[in-house]
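Support reply, case 0932

Customer input (verbatim):
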Amino acid sequence: MFALRVARKSVRSYTFLVIFGCTLIAFTLAPISITESIGTPLNTNFSAYLPLSYQAHWHAPISLIPSTQKPLPRPIPRPAHTFRPDGLLEVNPDGRHPILDLIARAEQEWDAKLAHVSQTLPEAVHEYRRRYARAPPPGFDKWWAYVKKHNVQLPDEYDQIHLDLAPFWGIDPVPLEAIQRDWEAHVHSYTLAKSSPLGPLHVGNETLPEDEAARDRLLIGANQLIDLLVEVEDDLPTFRAVFSPHDNPNVFITHDMRRRAVEAGERGEYIDPLNEDPAPFTSGWIHACPLDSVARNPLRSPSTTQKPKTFIYDHLQAMDPCAHPSHLSQHGQFLAHGTGPSANPFPVPQFSYCSSPLHADIRVPVPLSWVDDVEGERDEEGAWEKKEDERLLWRGLNTGIHHASDRPWRDSQRDRLVEIAQRTDGSVEVLVMDDHGDGEGMKVEEMKKARMNPAMLDIAFAGSPSQCEPETCRELEEGFEWRRRMSVRDAGRYKYVLDVDGNGWSSRFKRLITTNSLVFKSTVYPEWFTDRLSPWVHYIPIQIDYSDLYDALLFFRGDPSGRGAHADLGAKIARSGREWSRAFWRKEDMTAYLFRLFLEYARVMSEDRDSLNFEL
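Our regenerated output:
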């Protein structure tokens, strides 16, 4: 009897345990909703109270519990855009908005560049050898000490120096020195010289106008370069460097000459351009392009074919007229010389304030118009959120080409820009966000310029016509709306600003990118810092024909009513641009570039160049 009672108790105990266990599992796998007296549902999940071993090993019942919720459909991946070899992204109409992809790609590449930098002198030497297949020049350790002392960023990114000096490695230094010496007599030039190891850097020669005011004006750049190098003057080797004091480049050689010189240098051999048979007389821009380039082999497509929408992803490649021959008919740098100048018979070591992809000038950082900071931008007053005007701003003179009846000035960069902005007849097809689906798609809409331009653009020539013949000056004055010059503080009210070339490179870019405004930039001049900043991270690149200008502005600003705006992304890029300017474009950064440039230049000009190496 006693055994029967025990058995009955055991059965009741086991029954209770089974019921309790099932209840606990039910609570665990199917969260219940408890409604309090206030009527608010509380989702409660008791899985936190289960032993970890239970959670780790118990899987099957999850799939057995029926669900009343329909599973969310997985988003269908959008097709990719095409990244073309000419530096342009070609838009796939079914893809997501291309600027989202451009920003994501650029941020990833910039972060990777920042993450892979040399931290020590041995690492810098190793990276130098990897990139250029030779040892660094003497004095590299002193240059590295300057870089570390002044916290110069991206100490490996000096490929532009290598590209500019590459042809001279294929020319014997004896005739190369003769070429340099003869070029000192070139009209309108000055020569920076370090005549002895302990001597000062000075203007060793000049062929400038006799007018004292003009001469002093043309020597401003020379004096600023000397000032930049004061701290490292004693560590510079001896050299003589001829400079052009003007805005634009003028050394032009054929692609064949450059190729022969570069390839000879890579083999450790020389060409002798002074003594070999002269090359056939050549003139024209396309002779600076490879034989297999688009400029030499123009694509023939039916005139009725609609061009696809494109955006820049590689700004350096997108500047190249060899890949984009339309630049030759859309920019004063090329239009002013017609089909192109006559080629120099050999490379000439001339330094210039800027150079285009078709020129062979050695570019330098120029302190002209350099600013450390901008009035009204360094405090809350200049913050993006405080800027009131959401139109795209540009003011400037009608520079870029001489305006005369026999010049195609209407096709130059600045004149076309003002024409686009101030002519409000007609409409334009623009890329806008598509609100359907995931919100990242796009569609093409036709918008009237009469609605868009006044609401979105504040673009005009400033002051009065210049660089023009009297009759053409009157035509300019009557044909365009001219507005007053604008102060830096007044310009600071605009969230969006545009930077375009003038007679040469734009010296205002430093000021613009130091503001908290979003900078749109259109140029054909790669600069010393081109490898050291990133489009879509620090600024917005715009094509020379402005075909992407409306589309890019609409993405950030939205349409005239603000629909489709991505102001948060615009503010982020604007801030990144200002931070880059304050950290990567200081005077110390320009000094580091010049220091390394003259170390390299002095070696390639020396008869002992092959033995002038820095070794650890």
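We compared this against your earlier run and they match. Two observations from our side: The radius of gyration is 32 Å. Residues 48 and 141 are 60 Å apart (CA to CA). Please reopen the case if you see a mismatch on your end.
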